[in-house]
Design a protein that fits this description.
It is a single chain. A hairpin with a 5-residue loop joins β10 and β11. By secondary structure, the protein is of the alpha/beta class. The longest helix has 38 residues. It is globular, with a radius of gyration of 22 Å. The protein has 2 domains: 226 residues, Type I PLP-dependent aspartate aminotransferase-like (Major domain) (Aspartate Aminotransferase, domain 2); 135 residues, Aspartate Aminotransferase, domain 1, CATH 3.90.1150.10.
């Protein structure tokens, strides 16, 4: 009997061509696999990509944010304003340097931090704002940096998902303050694991280098010193050569992601109309095809109009061969943060979005017909469980 089950579509999958595989093999055969010449080449290439700003790479995107905080001198007694809708690493690194995360609610349309509510959260202890660009969509950068100037705050951009995004024609990372990117396996540009930090000057770059390798300061050929407390967050040549190859493919990847996102809008709206569910609120993403890199495509399930919860919808989609994700639950829902006195009720928009957001598959290797299949499957499930 032929297999009638459709091929499973994961919510994301990285793309590696043969040239990348060959480049990795060459590095492995070279005998130099840790931080070396390929790392230097990758950092220089990234610096050129960001208009000549200094760039340093690290073992993961969490390390980039932690070291950004350290470079900015943020520590015990300081407060950092951020969003409750992000991967928990965003706030964990703030706690990790001894500072306090201050959560400001999100905008329901962009799902990013609501910059209109930031000023009310600023106190004499506030040292920085750490916005997150959910699914690759940046915040209003003019408004963000106007706040920084008015209140004399550092900005640490958690642009983990925003490599390739832009603001009014300028690449995210090519301007601003400290900008952190992730190269984890599900990102638009991946090095399997890793991340980079865009800095303001050579002095900050040198300090970042110290923090990533045990605080080491080299003093010529015959000596060394350690003058700050660093960690082990260095980036390898194996990762770097993958990144160099990914940069070559990034324009094609971006074009494909944008095309798939456009198809999602058309397919979901068509399916909702066909099912007689035009009034069902799925809160589709902001149709921003100039600034977003379309890292993810997300809908918000109208749980108040359904007889089932998000988990059931995800299970039924999986049964149809469609993978999904949750990005993200509100950070204040986690026990660690509840135990420190944070209340999800203080950020009601984030609470609602965090309990109902659903990430649909989106990656360059997807086929056009996959979008129709996903949209059709999702709407059939919603119709089945819709409260009449």
């Amino acid at each position: 009997m032929p297999n009638t089950n459709p091929q499973f579509i994961p919510f994301t999958r990285p793309s590696f061509n043969q040239e990348t595989i060959d480049a990795v093999s060459e590095v492995l055969r070279s005998g130099w696999v840790t931080s070396g010449p390929k790392l230097a080449e990758f950092e220089a290439t990234l610096s050129a990509y960001f208009g000549g700003r200094p760039v340093r790479c690290f073992a993961n995107g969490t390390a980039t944010m932690k070291i950004a905080l350290q470079v900015a001198g943020i520590g015990a007694g300081d407060e950092v304003i951020t969003t409750p809708i992000s991967w928990v690493a965003t706030s964990n690194v703030i706690l990790g340097v001894g500072a306090k995360p201050v959560f400001v609610d999100i905008d329901p349309i962009t799902r990013n931090i609501d910059l209109n509510k930031v000023a009310a959260a600023i106190t004499p202890n506030t040292r920085a704002i750490m916005p997150v660009y959910l699914a690759g969509l940046p915040v209003n950068m003019d408004q963000l940096y106007a706040l920084a100037k008015q209140y004399k705050l550092r900005i640490i951009e958690d642009a983990a998902q925003a490599f390739g995004s832009q603001w009014q024609g300028k690449k995210i990372g090519s301007f601003g303050d400290l900008v952190s990117f992730s190269f984890q396996a599900n990102k638009n540009l991946t090095t399997v694991e890793g991340g980079c930090l865009v800095l303001n000057n050579a002095e900050e770059a040198k300090l970042a280098e110290k923090f990533r390798l045990q605080g080491l300061t080299r003093q010529g050929m015959d000596g060394m010193d350690v003058d700050v407390l660093g960690g082990k967050d260095n980036f390898t040549d194996v990762n770097a050569v993958i990144g160099l190859q990914q940069l070559k493919q990034l324009p094609a990847y971006q074009t494909r992601r944008t095309a798939l996102a456009r198809q999602y809008f058309d397919a979901i709206r068509t399916q909702l109309k066909s099912a007689g569910l035009e009034n069902l609120r799925l809160e589709l993403p902001l149709e921003n095809f100039n600034d977003s890199n379309w890292h993810m495509f997300q809908v918000v399930l109208p749980l108040d109009q359904l007889q089932v919860d998000r988990a059931q919808v995800m299970t039924e989609l999986k049964d149809l061969g469609i993978g999904t994700g949750v990005h993200y639950p509100a950070i204040t829902d986690f026990t660690l943060y509840k135990n420190q006195g944070y209340k999800t009720s203080d950020t009601p928009v984030a609470q609602r979005i965090g309990r109902s957001i659903l990430t649909l598959p989106l990656f360059p290797a997807m086929q056009d017909e996959d979008i129709g299949r996903i949209a059709s499957g999702l709407v059939r499930i919603l119709k089945k469980h819709h409260k009449n």
